[in-house]
Design brief:
Order of helices and strands: EEHEHEHEHEHHHHH
Largest sheet: 4 strands, parallel
Number of helices: 9
Strand content: 5-15%
Radius of gyration: 17 Å
């Protein structure tokens, strides 16, 4: 399912679970790491301004601490909140349940996650809108523009990230959804040519 807004989750396992359900930009807070990562917070602000942001954190105490921090740090009119239900259990990859014994985003079924996003006000897009916006950026685009897999690609990426005022340590894989969220294909191609 395609969603207009980007989604912010706590960690990579949440992101992996959600990526199986939705086609949108999914960004991570690295748990409490967001409290000390000004560059990531600024990136969340920019993505929220461009396409909106849905906060989807776990339903435990830590998830609400992260949610409340983001709620106070991001513009209210650009942020929506999706909540997962309290469900007891443990994720398959863990030996023991979490401190509160609740399942996190990664432990939720797809129907539960879809319902949470719909209740949170996610904007679901249909295929007709995709043809108007054009196809999303791909790894092949990054390669064709010399941003990955070739001689000097690291330097080109660094220049592009600097020009867009993005964190310098974004890998090509991490850069792809961010560029898709912030830039259109033609504008990005023009910027790369000018660099």
């Amino acid at each position: 399912m395609r969603i207009q807004e980007a989604i912010v989750v706590e960690g990579r396992y949440d992101k992996n679970t959600l990526a199986q359900l939705v086609d949108t930009v999914i960004l991570e807070t690295s748990g409490f790491g967001i409290f000390h990562d000004k560059a990531q917070l600024e990136l969340l602000r920019r993505v929220a301004e461009k396409r909106g942001l849905i906060i989807l954190t776990d339903s435990d105490g830590a998830g609400f601490v992260i949610r409340n921090y983001l709620k106070s740090a991001l513009p209210k009119e650009q942020v929506k909140h999706a909540y997962i239900p309290d469900q007891k259990g443990k994720e398959r990859r863990k030996r023991r349940p979490g401190k509160e014994g609740k399942l996190g985003v990664e432990g939720m079924s797809q129907p539960v996650l879809e319902a949470a996003l719909r209740r949170g006000g996610a904007t679901f897009l249909d295929l007709a809108e995709e043809t108007v916006q054009g196809p999303p950026l791909t790894k092949a685009d990054l390669y064709a523009w010399g941003l990955s897999g070739g001689a000097g690609s690291r330097e080109k990426r660094k220049k592009l990230l600097e020009a867009l005022d993005l964190p310098e340590h974004l890998s090509p894989n991490a850069m792809l959804p961010v560029l898709s969220a912030l830039c259109d294909r033609e504008g990005l191609a023009e910027l790369i040519r000018s660099l």
